[in-house]
């Protein structure tokens, strides 16, 4: 890994969080461990990260034939690896996941490994059923990259009545450093979607390796935990949505 650039943040928004991050311990498409991702994000100047590995019906590398408790243990290894490293180096690490239903994907925040272990029924839930479970215990649902269309996402499907927020900036779409999904128009459409349905907006890199592209959210304050992150988004605290270009374009 080459030396990483430091995030270029506004002075009044000094606390940056990567909200969409994968590890190769649970996501088949990722290339680095949770610990490696944590070190890279710390070096770049992030205050914290949210590990959002691909869930049971998505691009997971954890054997789906395992009993539920064993599957959850395997699924959480990337997060736990990142958390252990983050605790050592002073990086906050929060738990989440990227749910997938017929290639439509959502970021789930505010819940825990213990919650997953207690809800094996989530494996067979419909979108509405899972989201009822998530909302019942205070979780938040962000529709990530809602307008991305790729061979593995053949159509756009929107659920404005079920979601809490919209990822209107996905740095893989917009950052000049991105090497995949390069279509800023998808973010333009996501912004219009959030505005039409009056949904809070988020940003994340959708990063799969230590070659960072510097997306995420910058806050005025340091967050306490994943529930506090949900509270900040749902209460529409002031944030800066980072596209990555703020940092990538610096000399």
User: What is the gyration radius calculated from CA atoms?
Assistant: 17 Å
Q: What is the oligomeric state here?
A: single chain
Distance between the termini: 18 Å
Shape: globular
The share of residues in extended strands comes to 15-25%
* CATH architectural designation: Alpha-Beta Barrel
For this structure, what is the CATH homologous superfamily? Metal-dependent hydrolases
* Strand runs, count: 9
List keywords for this structure.
alpha/beta, 31% helix
Could you walk me through the main structural features you see in this protein, from its secondary elements to its overall organization?
With 251 residues, the chain is an alpha/beta fold. It has one domain (15-248): Metal-dependent hydrolases (TIM Barrel). The protein is built from nine helices and nine strands. Strands 7-6-5-4-3-2-1-8-9 form a nine-stranded mixed beta sheet. Strand 1, helix 1 (34-44) and strand 2 form a beta-alpha-beta unit. Helix 1 (34-44) runs parallel beside helix 3 (77-89). The chain is globular, with a radius of gyration of 17 Å. It starts with 14 loop residues before the first strand and ends with a helix. The model has no long low-confidence stretch (mean pLDDT 96).
